[in-house]
Amino acid sequence: MIGGAAFVDLLLRDRRAAIARVRDAAAADLAGIVRAMVATIAVCAAIVGAALGSDRGGVQILYAAVKLPVVLLGAAMLSAPALTAIGGALGRPVRLVHDLAIVITALGFGALVLVAGTPLLLLAHAGGVGYHATILLVVGVFAMAGLATLRVIVGAYAGDAAPGRRAGVLALCCTFAVVGGQLAWALRPYLVRPALRDQDAAFVEPREGSLVDAIFDTTRSTQRGW
Predict the structure, then answer these.
(1) The whole model's pTM is what?
(2) Please, where are the H alpha helices in the chain?
(3) Domain range list for the chain
(4) Residue 215's pLDDT is what?
(5) What is the pLDDT of residues 30-63, one digit of tens each?
(6) CA distances from residue 107 to 15, 62, 101, 138 in whole angstroms, order as listed
(7) By the 8 A CB rule, do 56 and 134 touch?
(8) Which is it for the CA torsion 39, 42, 45, 51, positive or negative?
(9) CA–CA distance from 173 to each of 129, 145, 154, 185, 209 (Å)?
(10) What is the C-alpha separation between 225 and 113, in angstroms, rounded?
Protein backbone atom coordinates (compact mmCIF):
# COMPACT_ATOMS: atom_id res chain seq x y z
CA MET A 1 0.00 0.00 0.00
CA ILE A 2 1.40 3.38 -1.06
CA GLY A 3 1.17 6.37 1.26
CA GLY A 4 -0.73 9.54 0.39
CA ALA A 5 2.34 11.75 -0.06
CA ALA A 6 4.10 9.04 -2.06
CA PHE A 7 1.09 8.69 -4.36
CA VAL A 8 0.94 12.47 -4.96
CA ASP A 9 4.65 12.36 -5.82
CA LEU A 10 4.04 9.46 -8.21
CA LEU A 11 1.14 11.32 -9.82
CA LEU A 12 3.36 14.34 -10.50
CA ARG A 13 6.25 12.25 -11.82
CA ASP A 14 4.40 9.56 -13.80
CA ARG A 15 0.66 9.92 -14.35
CA ARG A 16 0.39 6.64 -16.25
CA ALA A 17 1.95 4.69 -13.42
CA ALA A 18 -0.32 6.42 -10.90
CA ILE A 19 -3.45 5.60 -12.89
CA ALA A 20 -2.28 2.01 -13.42
CA ARG A 21 -1.88 1.69 -9.65
CA VAL A 22 -5.45 2.92 -9.18
CA ARG A 23 -6.85 0.55 -11.80
CA ASP A 24 -5.13 -2.47 -10.22
CA ALA A 25 -5.52 -1.52 -6.57
CA ALA A 26 -7.49 -3.50 -4.03
CA ALA A 27 -10.40 -1.87 -2.22
CA ALA A 28 -8.33 -1.09 0.89
CA ASP A 29 -5.64 0.63 -1.17
CA LEU A 30 -8.25 2.56 -3.15
CA ALA A 31 -9.66 4.01 0.06
CA GLY A 32 -6.23 5.39 0.97
CA ILE A 33 -5.71 6.82 -2.52
CA VAL A 34 -9.11 8.49 -2.52
CA ARG A 35 -8.47 10.02 0.92
CA ALA A 36 -5.12 11.37 -0.25
CA MET A 37 -6.64 12.84 -3.41
CA VAL A 38 -9.60 14.38 -1.56
CA ALA A 39 -7.16 16.03 0.85
CA THR A 40 -5.03 17.25 -2.07
CA ILE A 41 -8.06 18.73 -3.86
CA ALA A 42 -9.33 20.38 -0.67
CA VAL A 43 -5.98 21.97 0.20
CA CYS A 44 -5.19 23.11 -3.34
CA ALA A 45 -8.68 24.51 -3.91
CA ALA A 46 -8.58 26.32 -0.57
CA ILE A 47 -5.28 27.96 -1.53
CA VAL A 48 -6.66 29.06 -4.90
CA GLY A 49 -9.89 30.26 -3.29
CA ALA A 50 -7.95 32.29 -0.75
CA ALA A 51 -5.93 33.84 -3.57
CA LEU A 52 -9.15 34.83 -5.34
CA GLY A 53 -10.64 36.23 -2.14
CA SER A 54 -7.50 38.28 -1.48
CA ASP A 55 -8.58 40.61 -4.29
CA ARG A 56 -11.06 42.04 -1.80
CA GLY A 57 -9.41 40.85 1.40
CA GLY A 58 -10.87 40.35 4.85
CA VAL A 59 -13.44 37.66 5.40
CA GLN A 60 -13.79 37.15 1.64
CA ILE A 61 -10.51 35.22 1.75
CA LEU A 62 -12.06 32.70 4.14
CA TYR A 63 -15.33 32.52 2.22
CA ALA A 64 -13.66 31.75 -1.11
CA ALA A 65 -11.24 29.29 0.53
CA VAL A 66 -14.19 27.32 1.89
CA LYS A 67 -16.41 27.45 -1.19
CA LEU A 68 -14.01 26.39 -3.94
CA PRO A 69 -13.20 22.96 -2.41
CA VAL A 70 -16.94 22.36 -2.01
CA VAL A 71 -17.46 23.11 -5.71
CA LEU A 72 -14.70 20.80 -6.95
CA LEU A 73 -15.37 17.89 -4.61
CA GLY A 74 -19.14 18.19 -4.90
CA ALA A 75 -18.99 18.15 -8.70
CA ALA A 76 -16.66 15.14 -8.68
CA MET A 77 -18.81 13.09 -6.30
CA LEU A 78 -22.01 13.85 -8.23
CA SER A 79 -20.49 13.34 -11.68
CA ALA A 80 -18.36 10.21 -11.31
CA PRO A 81 -21.38 7.83 -11.18
CA ALA A 82 -22.36 9.04 -14.68
CA LEU A 83 -19.25 7.35 -16.09
CA THR A 84 -20.15 4.03 -14.49
CA ALA A 85 -23.88 4.24 -15.21
CA ILE A 86 -23.64 5.11 -18.90
CA GLY A 87 -20.81 2.65 -19.50
CA GLY A 88 -22.67 -0.08 -17.63
CA ALA A 89 -25.82 0.51 -19.66
CA LEU A 90 -23.78 0.00 -22.83
CA GLY A 91 -22.13 -3.20 -21.65
CA ARG A 92 -19.02 -1.96 -19.85
CA PRO A 93 -18.16 -3.77 -16.59
CA VAL A 94 -19.42 -1.86 -13.56
CA ARG A 95 -16.52 -0.68 -11.38
CA LEU A 96 -17.94 2.29 -9.52
CA VAL A 97 -15.25 2.44 -6.83
CA HIS A 98 -12.41 2.30 -9.35
CA ASP A 99 -14.11 4.84 -11.60
CA LEU A 100 -14.58 7.20 -8.66
CA ALA A 101 -10.93 6.76 -7.67
CA ILE A 102 -9.76 7.53 -11.21
CA VAL A 103 -11.95 10.64 -11.43
CA ILE A 104 -10.76 11.88 -8.02
CA THR A 105 -7.14 11.17 -8.99
CA ALA A 106 -7.52 13.08 -12.26
CA LEU A 107 -9.14 15.99 -10.44
CA GLY A 108 -6.34 15.87 -7.86
CA PHE A 109 -3.82 16.32 -10.66
CA GLY A 110 -5.92 19.17 -12.04
CA ALA A 111 -5.98 20.78 -8.60
CA LEU A 112 -2.18 20.61 -8.45
CA VAL A 113 -2.01 22.33 -11.84
CA LEU A 114 -4.52 24.89 -10.61
CA VAL A 115 -2.53 25.74 -7.51
CA ALA A 116 0.59 26.07 -9.68
CA GLY A 117 -1.17 28.95 -11.44
CA THR A 118 -2.00 30.75 -8.19
CA PRO A 119 1.10 32.98 -8.29
CA LEU A 120 -0.29 34.49 -11.50
CA LEU A 121 -3.49 35.45 -9.68
CA LEU A 122 -1.54 36.97 -6.79
CA LEU A 123 0.71 38.81 -9.22
CA ALA A 124 -2.33 40.24 -10.99
CA HIS A 125 -3.70 41.44 -7.65
CA ALA A 126 -0.36 42.97 -6.63
CA GLY A 127 -0.03 44.67 -10.01
CA GLY A 128 -3.45 46.29 -9.83
CA VAL A 129 -4.85 44.42 -12.83
CA GLY A 130 -8.49 45.37 -13.47
CA TYR A 131 -11.49 43.25 -12.53
CA HIS A 132 -12.39 42.09 -16.05
CA ALA A 133 -8.78 41.28 -16.96
CA THR A 134 -8.49 39.31 -13.72
CA ILE A 135 -11.65 37.36 -14.62
CA LEU A 136 -10.09 36.40 -17.96
CA LEU A 137 -6.91 35.31 -16.18
CA VAL A 138 -8.92 33.18 -13.74
CA VAL A 139 -10.80 31.56 -16.63
CA GLY A 140 -7.50 30.80 -18.35
CA VAL A 141 -5.96 29.22 -15.24
CA PHE A 142 -9.04 27.10 -14.58
CA ALA A 143 -9.23 26.07 -18.24
CA MET A 144 -5.62 24.89 -18.10
CA ALA A 145 -6.37 22.83 -14.99
CA GLY A 146 -9.54 21.44 -16.58
CA LEU A 147 -7.67 20.32 -19.68
CA ALA A 148 -5.06 18.63 -17.49
CA THR A 149 -7.81 16.79 -15.64
CA LEU A 150 -9.51 15.73 -18.87
CA ARG A 151 -6.24 14.46 -20.29
CA VAL A 152 -5.71 12.19 -17.29
CA ILE A 153 -9.26 10.82 -17.53
CA VAL A 154 -9.06 10.18 -21.28
CA GLY A 155 -5.64 8.58 -20.89
CA ALA A 156 -6.90 6.36 -18.08
CA TYR A 157 -9.57 4.83 -20.32
CA ALA A 158 -7.70 4.94 -23.64
CA GLY A 159 -6.75 1.28 -23.40
CA ASP A 160 -10.17 0.13 -22.22
CA ALA A 161 -11.67 -1.93 -25.05
CA ALA A 162 -14.99 -2.52 -23.28
CA PRO A 163 -18.10 -1.08 -24.97
CA GLY A 164 -19.44 2.15 -23.53
CA ARG A 165 -16.03 3.60 -22.65
CA ARG A 166 -16.26 6.66 -24.87
CA ALA A 167 -19.91 7.33 -24.05
CA GLY A 168 -19.16 7.01 -20.34
CA VAL A 169 -16.24 9.47 -20.49
CA LEU A 170 -18.33 11.91 -22.53
CA ALA A 171 -21.19 11.63 -20.02
CA LEU A 172 -18.76 12.26 -17.17
CA CYS A 173 -17.34 15.39 -18.81
CA CYS A 174 -20.78 16.80 -19.64
CA THR A 175 -22.15 16.06 -16.18
CA PHE A 176 -19.11 17.55 -14.48
CA ALA A 177 -19.37 20.71 -16.58
CA VAL A 178 -23.06 21.18 -15.79
CA VAL A 179 -22.90 20.24 -12.10
CA GLY A 180 -19.62 22.08 -11.47
CA GLY A 181 -20.82 25.17 -13.31
CA GLN A 182 -24.09 25.29 -11.39
CA LEU A 183 -22.38 24.73 -8.02
CA ALA A 184 -19.86 27.46 -8.77
CA TRP A 185 -22.68 29.80 -9.80
CA ALA A 186 -24.73 29.03 -6.69
CA LEU A 187 -21.79 29.68 -4.35
CA ARG A 188 -20.49 32.87 -5.97
CA PRO A 189 -18.88 35.36 -5.42
CA TYR A 190 -15.19 34.48 -5.33
CA LEU A 191 -13.94 37.68 -6.89
CA VAL A 192 -16.09 40.68 -5.94
CA ARG A 193 -17.15 43.32 -8.47
CA PRO A 194 -15.60 46.73 -7.70
CA ALA A 195 -19.05 48.34 -7.37
CA LEU A 196 -19.91 45.96 -4.50
CA ARG A 197 -16.70 46.20 -2.49
CA ASP A 198 -18.07 48.89 -0.18
CA GLN A 199 -20.87 46.54 0.92
CA ASP A 200 -20.58 43.90 3.62
CA ALA A 201 -19.05 40.67 2.37
CA ALA A 202 -21.62 37.95 1.67
CA PHE A 203 -20.93 34.21 1.71
CA VAL A 204 -23.20 33.80 -1.33
CA GLU A 205 -25.07 36.27 -3.50
CA PRO A 206 -28.88 36.27 -3.62
CA ARG A 207 -30.34 33.69 -5.98
CA GLU A 208 -30.75 34.98 -9.52
CA GLY A 209 -31.86 31.88 -11.38
CA SER A 210 -29.53 29.21 -12.71
CA LEU A 211 -26.27 29.43 -14.62
CA VAL A 212 -28.19 28.69 -17.82
CA ASP A 213 -30.53 31.63 -17.12
CA ALA A 214 -27.52 33.90 -16.63
CA ILE A 215 -25.97 32.76 -19.91
CA PHE A 216 -29.23 33.40 -21.78
CA ASP A 217 -29.61 36.83 -20.18
CA THR A 218 -26.04 37.74 -21.08
CA THR A 219 -26.58 36.56 -24.65
CA ARG A 220 -29.75 38.61 -25.03
CA SER A 221 -28.01 41.68 -23.57
CA THR A 222 -25.15 41.24 -26.02
CA GLN A 223 -27.53 40.93 -28.96
CA ARG A 224 -29.35 44.09 -27.93
CA GLY A 225 -25.98 45.84 -27.71
CA TRP A 226 -25.29 44.95 -31.33
Answers:
(1) 0.86
(2) 4-13, 15-24, 27-53, 59-89, 96-116, 118-126, 131-157, 165-186, 211-225
(3) 4-225
(4) 59
(5) 888 999 999 999 999 999 999 999 988 889 999 9
(6) 12, 22, 10, 18
(7) no
(8) negative
(9) 32, 14, 10, 18, 23
(10) 37
